[in-house]
Every structure is written in structure tokens, then in C-alpha cells.
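Risk mitigation, structural track. In case the binding assays with adenosine-5'-triphosphate fail to produce interpretable data, a predicted complex structure has been prepared as a fallback.
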Amino acid sequence: MREMSEERDVIRGKLKQIVFRNDDNGYTVARFIVDDLQQRQVTITGYLPVFSEDALMELSGSYVDHPRYGMQFQVETFHRVMPDDEDSLIRFLSGPLFEGIGKKYAETIVAALGKDAIHRIKNDPTVLDSVPKMTSKRRTAILEGLKESDDDLENLIQFFVAHGLGMRNVMKLERIYGKEAVEKIQENPYRMVDEVDGIGFATADKVAMSLGFELEDPRRLEAAMVALVDQMNMQSGDTFVNREGLAHQMKRQCAGLTYDFDELLESLLLQRRLVEEEGRIYHVDQYDAEVQIAQFLTLFPFEELEPVDPETLQFELDALQEKLAITYDQAQLDAIHTFFKHDAMILTGGPGTGKTTVVRALTALFKKLYPYQRIACCAPTGRAAKRLAELTETDTFTIHSLLGWDLESNTFTKTEQDPLIVDLLIIDEFSMVDSWLFAALCKASVHVKKLCIIGDEDQLPSVRCGCVLKDLITSELFPLVRLERIFRQSEGSDVITLAHQIRQGQTEELDCHGDVAFFPVGLYEIKDQVINVVQSALNKGYDIQDIQVLASKYNGPAGIDRLNAALQQCLNPPEKGKREWKAGYRTFREGDKILQLKNQPDDDVYNGDIGMLVEIVYANEDEAGKNRLIVDFEGIPVEYTSDNLLNISHAYCISVHKSQGSEYPIVIMPVVRDYGIMLQRRLIYTGVTRAKKSLVLLGEKDALIRGIASQEHHLRSTTLTQRITAMLNPEF
Ligand SMILES: Nc1ncnc2c1ncn2[C@@H]1O[C@H](COP(=O)(O)OP(=O)(O)OP(=O)(O)O)[C@@H](O)[C@H]1O
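Fallback model:
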């Protein structure tokens, strides 16, 4: 039993050391030095933000006698006490809150503004002008530091944490709504779903319930309907839902609640959170994305390049072929001429058909013919961008980094107001680009004068909504060059031959010889046989990073989770001296092969990147008292703590979807009936074409054949093509 003393106490003092902290909700156990004559040390507990150790705090709460931990001070409210003597003021201003302000400059500030410097700056920031040697950097550091030390922020944190939000989200709210956050969220917590990235309906609903909202509150039902449209789109890949389907799903989700569907929908249409067009209901973001893409492409280009003289082009082309000792075939030459003749072009073709070879020629010739124009190459994944950079010797980016993506707000700094300064834009692996991302790229591309889109139309469509590549090809807006001849085959690739058979839906006499092997294996033997194949490749001298196992679903005996666990046990077993970190159901071990699951642009690692776990640092050796894991992504070290551990998983076996945009020397791919409808032609094709050198298929031949024969069950429904057509022919 815990005993609690009755009266509320107030203590003043400073934080000494954090003993425990849950970063999700801010729950903290810390040592605190009370600012009295004895300088007593007290253990405090409560939901608190991270304070700097120098901050003078006033805590109000009560002492609790904990049976195991003894007397603790349980914090109910807290606020920062501003220093009121010169010494403390100088220490405060030169503390960690004020970046770049040292002791000397803090003295200058206090000498200029006196003991009530903080009060004066807060009342009128222009008083900083009277401080000698005040630079704009120093000014920003002081104002930002004061903002952080504000009591309002502390009250705001307490309010939201009490209503179930984690510290991370609270900080986002503060950034978006400022001091009005509490008022705004109290009035309608569901606005967070639309306005705060990373907060979905479930989180907003938790806050609303805690604030006492009714289940049938119209604001709740409206938010539920918008979230439902989003969720249905994410599941199907479509860019809209139909009215009846939405009404039906809404009925299921809001069973037992009384509401009028038509009225709710009408209200959402009026607010323009949803958009209706001929019975189709769009989430406003999806609608705007389609319109933006269609508008941009139909008006493209806004400025034109001087045309090239055909003779000069031919001269440079001949010189390039000689320099590279290559002869482009007719389709490749067509691609090159089309590119220089038109403002935009789509280049498509299967693996090994020479797409990258053409891009190399395009960039080399463009540099010669337009020496003062800027080129940017981009791709949706880091891997694809790196490959393009190696081959084209041009500035190459992921689309996210090109657009200056901000992870916290999920927004881009490059927009129509601050567009890209690029004349030629080349986008590779375009089949993976979704509607929302392409719309963002279009918005920032108003100065682009030439556009080249490259992608394999037979690969899986983008993870998120839309099928932009297919829609652009169907719209016939831009000239399309299709490369069919397989050049890699002449280098002896049986993988490519098989890939083309799969693409054409050919199921008889599948070419499984040479670099392609098929082993008939039953479902329950898959795990052991995969290990055997991996072992024999390792024995032949391949590295674990060269070998990639690709599976089609997560659960089941041949699922990703099971294969990862088995492969880890076999390839990187526990060993004395090899450090481990058990995190939930996963054990990370030094030497593990790791997959990045999310974009982390600040660290330069992206969804689909693969690295190696090189070091584990335990909490008791770490300054911040946290377990830490360091992964090396081809020379880029990235740190993970419990805060971002969900961004990675083991990579011995990964999904075919995650492998898009990457290539591996050896691919091992189980194909079993247990994968069900996942095993379709596009997925098999995408997996098979990841293999650069050799491919091992193992499983049930009938599952492979049935998979190749099965086309997508659900072709994505979008309206991009018809929008483009309508914009080109406004009279219809
Ligand atoms: N005209 C050509 N003559 C000789 N070899 C060629 C020619 N075009 C391409 N190749 C060679 O064919 C191979 C595949 O070309 P490339 O990498 O450009 O194809 P790709 O379509 O980009 O393939 P993937 O999509 O699989 O990367 C390369 O080794 C390339 O050097």
C-alpha cells in the first residue's frame, strides 16, 4: 500500500539527474535538489518535459511513501522560476537553452539590460538592439530559448499529457497552434487529424473522449468519415471511393450510433474536406493532387528551351558513342531523338532493356548541348538514386530530399513559392511514385523546361494511392518510348529471360536453368531449404549483403517474420561478447542485417535501405541513459534508440514491396500457395527482376504458375487520365 500525505507542498530547486523517462508520455523519475539551506536531494515523479539541468523549477505536489522506493515527491503542477539575481541570470542565459550564448556574452546582456532583462525582452524584443554586438543569430537564440522556457508551454504540456497525448505530439501542437493550442483542441480535438501530421482519428478520439465529447458528436462523426475515406484509399490504392461503398463502411464502423449519412457528407463537402464528383467521393488531398498533376502536365512547360540543331545533336551523339564504345540500337536512338525534340518524354521497358544506358546518354548530351542549364535526377528510393548517380555523374536526389522534406510536419520546403531551380528533371523508378508525391514535385517544378520520366510499367504500383505511370501512359499526353530488346541477356542473364516470360504471362516451359533455379519444396520445408541455399551461397564466397531473401507476406511458415528469425539464428547466432538488445518480440544483435522502414532524411537513410548493425551501447554506459544501436548504411552510421527503433527491422528476409528500387546479386524467393492472392504476376515479376546475377525460386510449381497467370484482382481506380483529357479538350 502506498501512503499519501494530505497536504500539497511546493518545492523549489533544480533537476540533478533523470533516472527514468518514458519519451512517449513524458513520465519521468528524477533526482531533484531542493534550493534550501540543506540542499536536500528528493526523488520526483510525474509527467514532465525535458528540463535543462540549470533550470530553476517550482514544483507543486505531494510526498508519497512508496513501499519500495521510499519517500518521493509526486509532481502535479510545475513551472520554471526565472532567475532574479545577476549571477543566476548569467548562468541561465549561458545555459543550454540559449544556443551559442556563452558566459561572456550573457554578462554583456545583463550589463546592458539589468536584472529584469528577461522580463524586458519578453515585453519588447527590440530592447535587444541596445545590447552591443547583437547579431541576428544571437537574437534568434535568445528569443527561441525564452520561448522554450515559457510557463505557457509547461501548462500546455501538462494539459495534453493528462488527456493522453505523448510528448512528441504535444510539441507538434505547440508548434502549429502556439499558445492557443489548449483552447483550439478543447473546442475540437478532431481538427488534429487534418492539421497535425502523425495524429490520426484514433489518437484525436482518445483526447476527445477524455475531454468528455459525445460518441455522436457531429465533429466526431465527420472526422470518422474523412478518416474512413483515407483508410479505404490506402487499402485499395484508389484515389476515390464511391458513395454507396462509403455509406456501407460507415454503417459498419459506427454501428449503434444515430446519424444521417447524407447530412454528414453534405457538411464535409461544404467544408471541402471531401470533394464529390459524379458520385465519386475524394479526400480533398487526393482530389487536389490529381488536379495539380493534370494542370501542371497539360500546361507544361511554362518556359521553353532553345531547340537543338539536329546536325549538332547527331555530331555529339556520334562522338559519345565513340567515346563510350557503344552503339545504341534503333529504339534507344529513337528515345534520344524524342527527348531532344519534345519537352517531355516517358521511357519505359523491362529490366536490362537499356533504360539507364539511355539516361546516361541523355545527361551527357544535354550537358554538351545546354552547358548552362541545370540538371536534377531523382528517384523515390535512396538506393535507386544512388545507382542513378553512379551511372549519370549528375546531381541525384531522392524525391523527398530534392523537395526539402520535413519529417515532423510531412511538408516540403520546395513549393510553387520556392520552386526548384532546375531546367531538366529526370525521374527514375517512376512506377513507385504515388499521386500525392508527384503532385508535390509538380508544384515545385514550374521552372523545369524538360521532363523525362522513366519506369517499368509492369512493376508493382506505388505503395500509396494512384497509379501515375500507368495513367500518364494511357493519357498519351507525352511521347512514349518503349524499349523491348534485352541487352543484359547478351551478357548471359537467364533471370531477364524468365522475367520477360513472366511479364508476358507465359506459364509453359518456364526457363529455369543457368542463373535461375527452381527447387520443388513443400511449405513446411521452406525455412530449412532457404537456409541451405543461403549457406551454399556463403560457402561460394558471397557476402550476406549480396544475398536477399524476398517473401510475399509477413505471417505463416514461409512468412517474413519466421524466415527472418530462422536466418538470424543461423547466420548471426548469439555468441559470447556479441551484444544483444531484446526489444519486444525482436532481438537485435551486433552483426545483424538491418532494413530501414521509413525515410529519415536528416540521417540520409530511406525506406528500403539495408545496413549492418555494428554496435550496441547499453543504457548504463550511455550519457543519456538510453540503449543505443548503431547501424552502418554503406558508410553512413545511423543511431537508433527506443524512440525510433520501429523504423528498422531485420533484413535477412524482406517483402517484395520493400525491395522495389533495389537490386541484389542473388535473390532467393519462396513461392507457395500459402501466400494466397499476394502471389500475382506483378509481384513475382518485381521480385524476380531484383536479381542481378542469379535467382533461386523454391516452393510449389503450381503456385508459381498460378501466380504468373493471375493478373491484379483490383486495378486501381483513379481519374487522372480523364482529368488530363478533359483539360486538353475543354469543349467536351
Ligand atoms: N546499345 C547497347 N549496346 C550494348 N550494351 C548495352 C546497350 N544498351 C545497354 N547495354 C547494356 O545492357 C545492360 C543493361 O542496361 P541498363 O542497365 O541500361 O538497363 P536498364 O533498363 O536500366 O535495366 P534495369 O532497369 O534492370 O536497371 C548494361 O550492362 C548495359 O551496358
